[in-house]
Write a structure and sequence with these properties.
Helix content is about 45%, strand content about 15%. It contains five helices and four strands; from the N terminus they run H-H-E-H-E-H-E-H-E. The chain has a four-stranded mixed β-sheet. Strand 2, helix 4 and strand 3 form a beta-alpha-beta unit. The radius of gyration is 18 Å and the shape is globular. It starts with a helix and ends with a strand.
């Protein structure tokens, strides 16, 4: 392959990657930019998992990409990634599962360029359910990782 063509294609690829890595953080409402309230108002703060899984889905990754953009915009901000489980299973098992979910979400954020020193991981297992119901819909709301801005 022609060297000049290869260099041109490499440059175009780098330019496209740079364009896709920029993010626009939109502000809605009367919140202080960079605050915990700003994050909660303008960024999807939680990702959901399948039953008995800590695998990050494609839709969850998109939400984590939005979180990473916000965290990059406010580079001194630290966050805690909370792992949660539904009420089924033992407390010990769900604490471990919540930890796996929080670590999986945190790993994606790190892979997207967020320094590990800015992230803390905690598991609440089934101690802090979002929905106290016993339907599958309620269980699905509880299988989550939530990113909370510190401070």
């Amino acid at each position: 392959m022609n060297t000049k063509l290869l260099i041109s294609l490499s440059g175009i690829a780098l330019l496209m990657a740079a364009c896709s890595s920029t993010c626009d953080v939109e502000q809605e409402g009367a919140v202080t930019p960079g605050s915990a309230e700003d994050f909660k108002t303008n960024v999807p703060d939680r990702v959901y998992f399948d039953f008995d899984s800590s695998k990050v889905s494609d839709s969850a990754k998109k939400r984590l990409e939005a979180q990473a953009c916000w965290l990059k915009t406010y580079g001194s901000t630290k966050a805690t990634v909370e792992g949660h489980a539904d009420i089924r299973g033992t407390a010990e098992y769900n604490m471990a599962l919540g930890n796996s979910r929080a670590n999986a979400a945190s790993k994606v954020l790190k892979d997207l360029g967020i320094d590990s020193s800015r992230l803390t991981v905690v598991s609440y297992g089934k101690e802090r359910v979002a929905d106290t119901g016993t339907t599958e819909e309620a269980h699905a709301k509880n299988r989550r990782a939530v990113t909370v801005i510190d401070g």
